[in-house]
Every structure is written in structure tokens, then in C-alpha cells.
Amino acid sequence: MSPTSPPDQLRAWIQRHLDPLEEGGAVDGLVRSDFDLGPAPPEPDRPLTPASVLVGLIEREAGFSVLLTRRSDTMRRHTGQVAFPGGRRDPGETVWQTALREAHEEVGLHPSFVSLAGLSTPYRTGTGYLVTPVVGFIREGFTLTPNPDEVADIFETPFGFLMDPANYEEHEREAPTGERRRFYAMTHESQFIWGATAGMLRALYDRLYGAAVA
User: Fold this and answer.
1) Does any domain span residue 1?
2) Residue 212 binned pLDDT confidence (cut-offs 50, 70, 90)
């Protein structure tokens, strides 16, 4: 089904291709990572920190758009980068509770506007996090207020653009540890979407529209 189809047609189709919330992520051990385009990831010297993000699909008249943020320039890590709302999981939380809490804290999205659909493929970052992307449909009528300590900007990008493989490029950059790492990236209007965020979007594309998907 085309990613530009009306939301009422896409909603159930997307949900069928996601993992159930109850699975909690990493079904069958499948994990994507910052290392997908390069050498295998090194063995972590400590357990990966569990985290979640909300992949929020906003139901607009023209089709779905995806809720994204640009991180504050005062953040210690990933300064100014485009990201999904999200963060590390608190003890006792489910993956979706974390995603909803972080979205509320970062951009003021009230959970009552989100209908949870399921989980996309977990993603390991080079900074030691294991991130579970939680996909949810966001109905119109919400208001957003960025938390200035964490978010510099809130914006939407068309789902159809993000689910078009022609828009993905491969870039290379030197990591803080000195090695060169390849990563997915795309540019929409003035926003440069790259790294883990682009990697999670590419994993969602592969899950929904990969060659083996019916």
C-alpha cells in the first residue's frame, strides 16, 4: 500500500506489519544499529541502556506526517540533531509508557491524542542505547509546546517522503572514537535527518515495504 494513501486506509495495514506491544521489542533477536552500513558493532563493555522513542504518525488531510524534533543546542549529546521524542526507560516502565512520557515531557503531546499501533525494529546506537521505536497514530486537535531544555524545534515531515528509498543517501563521518562510520541521511526542506533517526526510519521502511513484505 502506498505511504501516501489516506490515513484511514493505511492505519490497519501499518499495524499489521508491526510487532505487538506485548512483545516488548527485539522479536526473534532482530536488531538494527548504527553499524548496519559498516563493520560489525563491537561487544559492549556494559549492558545497553534501554530507551524508547515515539514514531508519531499525524493524521493530516493530505496523508500521514511524522512528528520530529530538533534537539536543543545546549544538550550534552547529539546537539542540534533531528530526533524522535524519546529517551531512556525508567525502572518499571513498558517501552510504550516511556515513549508516551517522553513525548509529553519533550513536546507537550498529551497521551490521549495517541493511539498506539505497535513496535518497529529495535535499534542499537553507537552511544550504548537499545532503542525501541513505538509507532502511534496521532489524531488532530493536539497542541505542542517544546521543552526548551531539550527541544529547539518541532516539525512534521511527510510519511510518503520518509518511506521513499530514493530519498535515502549514505554518508560517512568520523565518530568520537576515531573510526569512520557510514550512516543513512536525507534532507527535507531545511531539515537534515541522519544517524539513528534516519536508521530507524529506514528500518521501518524495510519492515513495511521491503521486498519480502506482502
Assistant:
1) no
2) very low
Contact (Cβ atoms closer than 8 angstroms) between residue 164 and residue 193: no
Within the chain, where are the H helices?
Answer: 7-16, 95-107, 159-162, 195-209
Q: Classify residue 176: in a domain, yes or no.
A: yes
* Strand ranges inside 139-189, DSSP E: 151-158, 169-174, 180-188
* Sign, Cα dihedral of 114, 119, 121, 125: positive
Q: Is 11 a member of any domain?
A: yes
Cell digits of residue 126: 553507537
The pTM of this model reads 0.91
What the block records as the C-alpha cell of 22 is 506485548
Domain of residue 30, residue span: 7-37+48-209
Cα–Cα distances (Å) from 214 to 14, 17, 25, 51, 150, in that order, read: 11, 9, 22, 30, 39
pLDDT, residue 25, reads: 57
Region 39-57 average pLDDT: 87
Query: How many domains, in total, are found in the chain?
Result: 1
Q: What is the DSSP letter of 19?
A: B
| Region of poorest pLDDT, from 7-16, 51-60, 175-184 | 175-184
Among residues 122, 132, 153, 119, the alpha carbon closest in space to that of 88 is found at 132
pLDDT of residue 207: 93
pLDDT at 214: 42
The CATH number of the domain where 145 resides is what?
Answer: 3.90.79.10
